[in-house]
Amino acid sequence: QVQLVESGGGSVQAGGSLRLSCAASGYTYSTKCMGWFRQAPGKEREGVAAIYTGSGSTYYADSVKGRFTISQDNAKNTVYLQMNSLKPEDTAMYYCAAKPTYGGPLVSTSYNYWGQGTQVTVSS
Fold first, then answer.
1. Strand runs labelled E in the chain
2. Each residue's pLDDT expressed in tens, for the chain with a length of 124 residues
């Protein structure tokens, strides 16, 4: 089992920045991939960014490329999502997820473990 706890959400004006953190505990040695997903009211959950924990390879949704950056601190078992140039359409609940496999880094159904989510609200 892997436990994930997100933090760092909040309210910000358009153009602003936020950094989300996801602290992992438990059987983290088995984790191969960690991702950030978001879900707005009435919409499906979508993959935002992901990182392969071994190689550091990163993946991004087209909607956030150039604005969001995923990174990791292996010593702290923590993954971050730096979000810059935020837009109102980025408003959503953001979830951290982990899985012990590669492939489909932005596919939510491929993930085994999920955090409780942290709300991000961007006002215009």
1. 2-7, 10-13, 18-26, 33-39, 46-52, 58-60, 68-73, 78-83, 92-99, 113-114, 118-123
2. 999 999 999 999 999 999 999 999 998 888 999 999 999 999 999 999 999 999 999 999 999 999 999 999 999 999 999 999 999 999 999 999 999 999 999 999 999 999 999 999 999 9
